[in-house]
């Protein structure tokens, strides 16, 4: 299989991963309400499912990354795809919320797609081409985000369980495709130790943070994730409050922003990084993010928000550049380990921030100052940018 074919498969995997998630997001509330016969209990179960998935992903991500270094990328990626397909099928067939909780927990423990895709790309892409490759990953993610909810809403109008069958079918089809054609990118190193210290999330994150360059880059990633999750958790509510937008209006704006970001990452990230370098691009993207978050906090008219959305499109180059920088800093034999620790860090943000940001937004709303939540996001993004700007571009020795 040629490198271009492998890249196509990985991008398709990311697209289907996000498409499958997007398919079911609009439908989960209806399914849980059907299973519990109580909207109040459905909300509680929805929160429990999300938290359980995040906690299991946090606990298992370093192990999956370590397994990818020891046994190869391919088996871990195929396991993740299989667990995801089983999870969606369980959603389609479940007769109780406890069934969903069990299978969703297993899927969280096997959620290694992002870890393995990032490590695989580092294996098969030369350093000078990684920013473009990670930009394409971001584009595939964005396109899946746009298409998923639309298709899910249409299928859910026919039957509430139909989107889950569709998501499961997509996952299993991709699993079969990968099983037949995807080669191993890097033979596993059986000398890679699997110990409690190297595979537990706290130990893996601590080991990463102790490293001078990777530790600062990981800290920047955490701060950027915090800012991103604050926005995701509160943005729709903020727009509804500040501008009285309908859900349709909010949805269209989100979809348009995601589509513009995907097209930009697909076409522009590579040339920008070649011209500016990874560090300058990452810092520039961070500064644009700070501008967008701070501006959103004080935007008083829709046109101001539209301008900020346009400014936010090129900010997406910063994430791809930072990911390329991280992969180039890590040694060739530890890409899975590093990406697994980063996935655990991301899982922390995705598990904790929605609850905390939602509570903070509610408190600020009571005082008529909901925009201040984006000041917090801007502070997180500014901290990430400062870490990036003050980090060395040191590379590991060749062969490390």
Number of helices: 17
What CATH calls the topology is Growth Hormone, Chain: A
Instruction: Count the E strands.
Output: 0
Q: What is the element string, with H for helices and E for strands? A: HHHHHHHHHHHHHHHHH
* Overall residue-averaged pLDDT value: 87
Q: CATH superfamily assignment?
A: MFS general substrate transporter like domains
Sheet with the most strands, sense and barrel status: none
Helical residue percent band: over 70%
- In CATH's first tier, which class applies? Mainly Alpha
- How much strand? under 5%
Q: What's the shape?
A: globular
What's the number of structural domains? 1
Contiguous low-pLDDT stretches (5 residues minimum) are: none
Give the distance, in angstroms, between the N- and C-terminal Cα atoms.
Answer: 26 Å
CATH architecture: Up-down Bundle
**How would you classify the helix and strand content by structural class?**
mainly alpha
Indicate the radius of gyration in whole angstroms: 20 Å
Account of the 3D structure:
By secondary structure, this protein is mainly α. The protein has a single domain (3-179, 199-389), classed as Growth Hormone, Chain: A, CATH 1.20.1250. The protein is built from 17 helices and no strands. The chain has helices spanning 3-24, 28-36, 39-71, 73-93, 97-109, 113-124, 127-158, 162-181, 196-199, 201-209, 212-243, 247-267, 269-276, 278-298, 302-329, 335-366, 372-389. Helix 11 packs antiparallel against helix 17 (372-389). It starts with a helix and ends in an 11-residue tail after the last helix. The relative contact order is 0.15. The mean pLDDT is 87. It is a multi-pass membrane protein.
